[in-house]
Design goal:
The complex is a heterodimer of chains A (282) and B (553). Chain A is α+β, with helices and mostly antiparallel strands and 282 residues long. Chain A contains eight helices and eleven strands. In chain A, the strands form two sheets. A six-stranded antiparallel beta sheet of chain A has the order 2-1-11-10-7-8, with helices on one face. A five-stranded mixed beta sheet of chain A has the order 4-3-5-6-9, with no helix packed on it. In chain A, α1 runs antiparallel to α3 and α1 runs antiparallel to α8. Chain B has 553 residues and is of the alpha+beta class. In chain B, the strands form six sheets. A seven-stranded antiparallel beta sheet of chain B has the order 1-2-11-4-3-12-13. The radius of gyration of chain B is 49 Å and the shape is elongated. Classes of the chains: A alpha+beta (282), B alpha+beta (553). At the A-B interface, α1, α3, α5, α6 and α8 of A face α1, α6, α7 and α9 of B.
């Protein structure tokens, strides 16, 4: 099961979809851009960023198959955050330009800042993720790489098609860098092997992940009995993934034996309430 | 926004104030970078004062710098000698006339230089006045700045002409007559803009904008035109080499010196227009959004839960890093030998004696039996030699991890709900009397149970929790549902939860029980028998009750 390859592919496709949304909004923008008095460069930047943010920040609900109403909520929130990030990013590019920084460099900075802000925003709304530096830096790197591609495409006659290609390339590169970094830092996945979510699997890419049915759980189990909102935590200590029952969490079994805290090894079967999960190293 | 506006205005004022204080500035009309990609050769259009180009050292007295580097000036010539003039008149739609020539004579009462081409654009459309060209009218219904912008876009960029846009108007519907986009368009298309306002124009934000002429009436038009054309004639075209051209946003610095005067201008090429007009129809945006939504939906749908499909009983392969597959088990059973023929991604070690592990059909499932006792066989991660397999049981056979699937035991939720009432709920736990039973003890009689359940305590609690004296496991029975209390020689049923405690079909809160009363607690029903316990019946054991109940669940 080449799970990491699939992770990369899915993320790349998602990035391309984000680029397409950005381009679609840009193509629609002549209908509303002229009502704004700020520079068209910034307005277009905001429009494109809103499109990118709408999809990139809704990655979790999309790729974890959460209910569609939640996907819609995340898309809307992502668009707003993307728009604000775009304003900050391209406004700063605008200012750099005013200070005689070459346009190439200032726009690149704009794209990088956009990536940085999107990366940061993606983990701000993650309830229990304590990391902010890594997604931020990853986002910044992805944004710079994507911006570089956009600039390369912009060397050609930058017409409608080229802009679509540039935005697709930006979204794709950004997501590829993010997913690649996640692949580098993750060594395991969790697979649901019974019940309503049978067949779903999650890459364990963060040093602390929560399991439960609650809206803020990183790994969400819905439709199972005896699962708590925050049932258990998965954390990495010294490269060893371990499972820990939280104070008020429900019953937790590893290999059908009750546990409170247990280091996991390849192939372990985790039972949380009525849900059975399999821990596989990749 | 206000903060940024104020901050940028302050910065600009400070910057210009310190750099250009005391020196008269030159006016840059526009630039042309259309040749930039090929030849690194650019053109800049300037207005140069008389004394500068009459200086004996001209054009050597002019120096061009970009970001600290001096640029090579190829050529400096009068634009009027090199390029023909083209004028775009932008007029209010109310002035539209059947005979455009008369209108033109009216508004342009001067003799124009040779080869001059005039176009007229209305607020409502663009009309070309050219003998060779048919009249083109493109109707437009737009507010003013947008109409001017569209007219400028249609006028286009043409570096082979000196181009002027003259707005003649007696009204404007909006206060904003000129915006940043128009400024960018003007500079990119190297067009200079003049506005001639007739009485009646109420525009507030024109203070400080150059090239605005307010006139009292048409009689002043010739003088204005003289002025406009004189300015157009004083334009100079400077051709220079810049190998490091960025395309747009470049800052140029021009110094000029005569014996008496020094001139300077710092000018930033307009641009930054990263997203020049997308030359695509608006509907393509909608198509792109719809396509993106479809793709995102596909990605979402691709992650749906996937239930392994198996018609009969089978083992789902769950070993890490193996492809998901279900191996069917023949209905007649057999040994586990067939696992050795299974194709896997990598070689999984299996026990040598799998032919001694037998599967025999039993009760709609399979009985697994290890005849060898030496196979490393785990069921639900425990060493077991014999077990009737249940749906979802996990088998470890050597390195192979398998999950038993039995569609017969895997009833859909709704179906399971429907079949529930037909299964009688029997006590899972019963108080075991600590000795021989007294004669004449009342008891509870369950229809499907082999035994009666005597009431040995003064208070008998009934509910689904294991702390009750009579545990009835069902989703419709509360943890502590009811109690039977002995009062004197009589027994009283007291309801403790909800409204599903019934005696003879009637809901009760509490009532003394009589012989033969039919009691319903949730979905479990039993009879109350007063006395006459049959002594020849064996006592019900806790274990038996538990087993029966599990079978039912």
């Amino acid at each position: 099961m080449p799970h990491k390859g699939k992770h990369l592919l899915e993320n790349a496709l998602l990035g391309a979809v984000a680029g397409l949304v950005a381009w679609g909004l840009l193509a629609l923008s002549p209908t509303f851009v002229e009502y704004f008095t700020i520079s068209p460069f910034v307005i277009h930047g905001i429009t494109a960023s809103a499109g990118l943010g709408a999809i990139l920040l809704a990655r979790d609900p999309l790729l974890k198959h959460l209910p569609l109403n939640e996907v819609a909520l995340h898309v809307f929130r992502g668009a707003v955050i993307g728009g604000v990030s775009g304003w900050l990013a391209f406004r700063s590019a605008d200012y750099l330009l005013a200070y005689q920084v070459p346009p190439f460099a200032s726009r690149l900075v704009g794209w990088g800042v956009l990536g940085l802000l999107l990366g940061g925003a993606s983990c701000v709304f993650h309830a229990r993720s304590h990391l902010i530096l890594r997604p931020c830096l990853g986002g910044g790197a992805g944004g710079l790489a994507g911006g570089l591609l956009v600039e390369l495409v912009a060397l050609t006659p930058f017409d409608g098609t080229a802009q679509a290609v540039a935005l697709l390339a930006y979204g794709l590169t950004y997501q590829l860098v993010q997913a690649g970094l996640e692949n580098l830092t993750s060594h395991a996945q969790l697979r649901v092997i019974n019940g309503p979510q049978i067949g779903q699997s999650w890459l364990l890419s963060s040093p602390l992940l929560s399991l439960g049915y609650g809206r803020h759980a990183d790994l969400r189990l819905s439709g199972y009995t005896e699962v708590c909102a925050h049932h258990a935590d998965l954390r990495i200590d010294n490269e060893q993934m371990s499972l820990q029952n939280v104070e008020k969490g429900g019953e937790l079994e590893v290999n059908f034996r009750k546990v409170h805290q247990q280091p996991l090894k390849d192939g372990d079967i985790i039972k949380a309430g009525s849900a059975l999960l399999q821990y596989c190293e990749t | 926004m206000n903060f940024w506006k104020i901050a940028s205005v302050l910065t600009a004022v400070l910057f210009w104030g310190t750099v250009a204080l005391g020196k008269p500035t030159l006016v840059v009309v526009g630039s042309d970078a259309s040749q930039a990609m090929l030849e690194n050769s650019h053109r800049l259009f300037l207005l140069l004062p008389e004394d500068l180009h009459q200086d004996p050292y001209f054009p050597l007295n002019l120096q061009l710098q970009a970001e600290g580097t001096t640029l090579l000036v190829d050529q400096l010539e009068r634009r009027r000698d090199a390029l023909p003039l083209e004028i775009l008149l932008f007029l209010p739609s109310a002035w539209k006339q059947e005979d455009p020539a008369a209108l033109l004579q009216d508004l342009l009462p001067i003799t124009l230089p040779e080869k001059t081409r005039v176009q007229v654009s209305w607020e409502g459309g663009l009309v070309a006045f050219d003998e060779n060209l048919p009249e083109q009218i493109r109707p437009r219904q737009e507010p003013f700045p947008s109409a001017l912008r569209s007219a400028l876009k249609e006028f286009g960029s043409d570096a082979s002409k000196r181009r002027l846009v003259v707005v003649l108007t007696d009204h404007f519907p909006v206060a904003e007559w000129h915006d940043q986009q128009i400024a960018t368009l003007l500079a990119q298309n190297h067009v200079s803009l003049h506005a001639v306002f007739f009485p009646g124009v109420e525009v507030s934000n024109i203070e400080g904008t150059s090239r605005i002429h307010r006139i009292g009436g048409k009689e002043e038009l010739p003088a204005i035109w003289e002025q406009v054309l004189a300015e157009a004639d004083s334009e100079w075209m400077l051709t220079y080499q810049d190998p490091n051209w960025h395309g747009d946003g470049k800052t140029l610095q021009i110094h000029a010196r005569t014996a008496e005067q020094e001139y300077e201008v710092i000018w930033q090429a307009p641009g930054l227009h990263y997203w020049p007009e997308l030359e695509v129809p608006v509907w393509s945006g909608g198509v792109a959004l719809a396509g993106a939504t479809l793709f995102a939906g596909l990605l979402w749908w691709n992650r749906r839960p996937r239930v392994p499909v198996s018609e009969g009983m089978g083992f789902q392969l769950l070993s890490p890093r193996e492809k998901d597959q279900v191996v069917p088990i023949p209905d007649s059973g057999g040994s586990l030998e067939f696992l050795t023929k299974l194709r896997t991604q990598r070689k999984l070690r299996l026990s040598a004696n799998l032919h001694r592990v037998l599967l025999t059909p039993q009760d709609g499932s399979m009985m697994l039996e290890d005849k060898n006792y030496k196979n490393a066989l785990l069921i639900n991660r425990r060493r077991i030699h014999r077990r009737l397999l249940q749906h979802g049981d996990l088998l470890d056979v050597g390195e192979m991890v398998l999950m038993f699937h039995n569609p017969k035991q895997q009833l859909p939720e709704a179906e399971a709900e429907e079949t529930k009432p037909s299964v009688p709920v029997l006590p899972a736990v019963w108080i075991k009397p600590n000795g021989p039973l007294r004669k004449g003890l009342p008891s509870l009689q369950f229809a499907d149970a082999r035994n009666d359940f005597p009431l040995v305590r003064n208070i008998t609690f009934i509910g689904s929790a294991h702390t009750n004296d009579v545990q009835l496991i069902s989703s419709e029975i509360a943890a502590r549902h009811a109690k039977i209390v002995k009062i004197g020689g009589q027994f009283k049923l007291v309801n403790l939860a909800g409204d599903s405690t019934l005696i003879n079909g009637r809901r009760v809160e509490q009532r003394f029980l009589r012989e033969g009363d039919e009691i319903m607690v949730g979905d479990s029903s039993f009879r109350f028998r007063f006395g006459r316990p049959s002594s020849n019946k064996p006592k019900p054991s806790r274990r038996e009750g538990a087993n029966r109940s599990h079978e039912n669940v």
